[in-house]
Specification:
It is an enzyme of class 5 (isomerase). It comes from Companilactobacillus ginsenosidimutans. It is built from nine helices and six strands, in the order βαααααβαβαβαββα. It is an alpha/beta fold and 222 residues long. It has a six-stranded parallel sheet with strand order 3-2-1-4-5-6, with helices on one face. Bound molecules: 1,6-di-O-phosphono-alpha-D-glucopyranose (G16) and magnesium ion.
């Protein structure tokens, strides 16, 4: 019996994954690392420092920089990202999400946020959606990033729910893995070939409705 929904932010609620990608692309160019669609996909949902490590590894440069230099580059990416966020408003909310959040509230589902982003409180404020997510997992308190189950397990915990009472929603492959290993039902938003481990797949957030979820699940589960 589903009682709560645990949301990823970037790429599910808002268009910000495009901004993350853009900011990492800029940094990859500066570091002389070849940018690719695959790299962009593999960075989704991955924490700031782990993202930098992945970019360096992709370019065979993982041993070229000190920890201090790496932190400087990660900070630089964040400055670029924050610059791109300036002026972002409710128009960056992905299609169908506002209606979906309203209908979840109407049906008394509990909502929490499981975003790896330390910027998520700021993003929610700018989108005007902060009131929906009083319960959030603070990513700075996590020992492990996605695909580890920790973040989605905590997303259920902050709602006082068991994992099996929750549906997790993600756009990243590592995010879907995190939901699944936490023991929640997973919804993947995006390319079904990439998100092939999701229990339910929708290609777009416009398909995210209680009706469609009900249809995709076994009768009576929602
Ligand atoms: C997000 C993005 C990632 C980003 C990470 C950390 O995760 O998908 O691209 O690297 O957060 O973000 P920040 O540098 O802002 O702390 P999610 O979990 O919301 O998709
Ligand atoms: Mg995401």
């Amino acid at each position: 019996n589903i009682k709560g929904f645990v949301f990823d932010l970037d790429g599910v609620i808002a268009d910000t994954s495009v901004y993350h990608s853009k900011a990492w692309h800029q940094l990859a160019d500066e570091l002389g690392v070849q940018w690719s669609e695959d790299l962009a996909n593999n960075l989704k949902g991955v924490s700031r420092m782990d993202s930098l490590e992945l970019i360096l590894k992709t370019g065979g440069k993982e041993n070229d920089y000190t920890q201090e230099e790496k932190e400087k580059y990660a900070a630089k990416k964040n400055t670029n990202y924050l610059e791109l966020l300036k002026g972002m408003n409710a128009s960056a909310i992905l299609p169908g999400i506002s209606d979906f959040l309203t209908s979840l509230e109407e049906h008394d589902y509990k909502l929490s946020l499981a975003s790896a982003s330390k910027n998520s409180p700021l993003v929610l404020e700018q989108l005007g959606l902060a009131q929906y997510f009083k319960e959030k997992v603070d990513p700075s308190t996590l020992k492990h990033g996605k695909p580890d189950p920790e973040i989605f397990a905590r997303g259920a915990e902050v709602l006082g729910l068991k994992p099996e009472e929750c549906i997790g929603i993600e756009d990243a492959k590592v995010g879907v893995e995190s939901i699944n290993s936490a023991g929640e039902t997973s919804i993947g938003i995006g390319d079904p070939n990439i998100l092939n481990e999701a229990d339910i797949n929708f290609t777009s957030t416009t398909d995210l409705t209680l009706n469609n979820i009900q249809k995709a699940m076994e009768v009576g589960q929602l």
